[in-house]
Amino acid sequence: MIQRGNNRQACFFTEDDYRYYLEWLITYAKDAGCAVHAYVLMTNHVHLLLTPTTASGAGELVKRLGQRYVQYVNRTYRRSGTLWEGRFRSCLTQEDSYVFVVVNSNRTPG
Known about the structure:
It is a single chain. By secondary structure, this protein is of the alpha+beta class. The protein has helices at 15-32, 57-76, 96-105, and strands at residues 2-4, 34-41, 45-52. It has a three-stranded antiparallel beta sheet with strand order 1-3-2. A hairpin with a 3-residue loop joins strand 2 (34-41) and strand 3 (45-52). Helix 1 (15-32) runs antiparallel to helix 2 (57-76).
């Protein structure tokens, strides 16, 4: 799953922003019945590798997480309006080797 910042603008501004997003990701993933296998949080977009247990699980997770995070950002940084660029994008990954490459390419050496 990929979700980009509106106009490719930043979505995360401080370390606290990343921390809150991850805390809410854990909570809402459990609520939506989604297993999160990997994530990458960039300053202006998010990648999530997850497995939902229901057809609506991923959408439910992203909706609740996105709403909560946008409310936090708007309140914290005294802004208004959308943070995300449209709807999230997703695709199926069916081969274990693809998942292994994605997860390992995001690890730091050492």
